[in-house]
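Just wondering, can you check both lines?
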Amino acid sequence: MLIFLHGWPSIGLMWRAQMEAFAADGWHCVAPDLRGFGGSSAPEANSAYAIRDVVADMTELHDHLGGQPAIWIGHDWGSVVAGALVAHEPERSRGVVLTSLAHQPAGHALRTIVPLVDRTIYPADRYPDGQWDYYRYYTTHFGAAVADLDADKAASLASIFQPGDPAGVGKVSPNAVVTRNGGRFGATHRAPPTRPNPDLWPSADFGVLVQAFEAHGFRPSCAWYLNDDANIAYAREARNGGHLSQPVLFVNGDFDQICSIIGNRQGDPMRTACADLTVTSMPSGHWLPLERKAELTQAIKAWVQIKRL
């Protein structure tokens, strides 16, 4: 069984290409909408979006599906959930695939990721949080951040889901100046009119994505950024200090200005914490499962075969 976990701001449907390919090979594939996204529940309390609670959702789902050890595949926050689940309940996993966001055994939080910022790109005096400034902005201006995204949900999603640009490698990310600009979209406080990219989302699937955010707005999904203390506390409860003994495949996007582990220290904790780690890299931005649909599928298939999973 393969269980695919999406990140922000997405839904399980983002894994369509990978699921269709693996299902054709006989795999049982599942891609839930995580809490706060899509057709899943959207609790009112911001504290309800801590990783502990999302992992509890996934373990309940896994039990419902029979509970046999699965391969967990994550993207973005979905990688955080996959890594945490396997760190706390390793018996539920045969292997882990993480795309676009490295495992942080001490928990994914500003306190763990900001110290890993590449200060050659982001001098501390000008960019104290580096590329994670947008994350900080959620914690300091949550209502404003959500309102800006909600002002035109379709345009927000279309502007966010754009392919990576190789010209941005080694340069300051727009996400590093969100606070300075007064929000993700600056003084306009709404996304510019943007055509969705059909190479990433097929038109019908993008329509489903927009409908999902029209239903709940961005508040539930953005609340994931508000639980650093709880997430660090939960990480401290993991077995063996958050180390993963199962085979782990990490797939990096070369053009990802936020999460790439190439040429910086962001992947160092993962390298230390994984006993059997394979790292591969693709010419992609952050939306790697959408930008490199076939290539990601093939990389996972090859790794599964090599590791005899």
In short: DSSP finds 14 helices and six strands in the chain. The chain has a mean pLDDT of 97. Residues 293-307 form the longest helix (15 residues). Residues 2-307 form a domain with the Rossmann fold fold (CATH 3.40.50.1820).
